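Weekly sync, protein design subgroup
Attendees: M.S., D.O., the rotation student, P.L. (late)

Item 1: inverse folding check
M.S. brought a backbone from last month's batch and wanted to see whether the design step gives back something sensible before we order anything. D.O. pointed out we never logged the input encoding, so this time it goes straight into the notes. Structure tokens as presented (226 positions):
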């Protein structure tokens, strides 16, 4: 089966980029949608590779022209959006497409395309999330305390939207999380063996796995009711 839309969201610093790269290494045929954004490129980012970097004027023109499947303002002021053309392109080639988008955008896409496979990635606890955010910013050479505090506060708000996602995956040990995400992809494609299917079923948000409940509890978020 091809042409499946996977939607991935996670609080910043959960390890989503790390996990997605690992899964794309394990499972062939997952095309990555390149979003449009008005934020400036960071570090070694290149236009057309991580994002299509564009101006606010052009982004607003694209909104008016109805060119986005979804768009949102993320972290205050910058626009981010998925062009409908990315989806059309993947469909024409029969490829599965992976959208790495925030909760606001994900809920728009889930509303329009309920058949999409939505996956929320959680960090195991606020302490681990804070450590990962700090490690990453140290590696980038600069730690902005206000940014770390804002991202931790934002994480809890995002976790409160988890009920809208079909799957919830706790990124504690990377290999385990990658195995789980691989199983979800194979199950969606109808390619899962019995063991993979059981792993994927255990990641359904509604299955309330002990790992999921523990992570939600550590953030003070109530588990979603089925
Ligand atoms: P995101 O894309 O969700 O913002 P990153 O993939 O940039 O997050 O990961 C944030 C930091 O956490 C990085 O320094 C990364 O190496 C580290 N990291 C990611 N996953 C794990 C994991 N399972 N265990 C330990 N560290 C991790
Ligand atoms: P960053 O600036 O760190 O690359 O991304 C910030 C946030 O924007 C992440 O949560 C990421 O998932 C989200 N994001 C990236 N592209 C899109 C997009 O096209 N649409 C929406 N709604 N969010 C996006």
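Designed sequence read out in the meeting:
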């Amino acid at each position: 089966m091809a042409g499946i839309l996977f939607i991935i969201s996670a609080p910043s610093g959960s390890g989503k980029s790390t996990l997605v790269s690992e899964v794309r290494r394990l499972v062939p045929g997952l095309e990555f949608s390149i979003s449009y954004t008005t934020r400036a490129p960071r570090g070694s980012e290149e236009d057309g590779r991580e994002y299509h970097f564009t101006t606010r004027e052009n982004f607003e023109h694209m909104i008016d022209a109805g060119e986005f499947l979804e768009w949102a303002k993320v972290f205050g002021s910058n626009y981010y959006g998925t062009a409908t053309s990315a989806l059309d392109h993947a469909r024409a080639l029969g490829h599965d497409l992976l959208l790495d988008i925030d909760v606001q955008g994900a809920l728009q896409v889930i509303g329009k395309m309920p058949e999409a496979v939505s996956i929320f990635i959680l960090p195991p606890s606020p302490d681990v999330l804070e450590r990962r955010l700090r490690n990453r910013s140290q590696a980038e050479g600069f730690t902005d305390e206000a940014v770390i505090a804002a991202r931790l506060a934002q994480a809890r708000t995002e976790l409160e939207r988890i009920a809208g996602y079909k799957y919830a995956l706790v990124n504690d040990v990377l290999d385990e999380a990658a195995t789980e995400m691989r199983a979800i992809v194979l199950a969606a494609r109808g390619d899962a063996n019995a063991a993979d299917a059981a792993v994927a079923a255990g990641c359904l948000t509604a299955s309330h796995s002990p790992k999921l409940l523990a992570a939600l509890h550590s953030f003070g978020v109530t588990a979603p009711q089925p």
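Discussion: The longest helix spans residues 174-189. The chain has a mean pLDDT of 93.
Action: P.L. to compare against the previous round before Friday.
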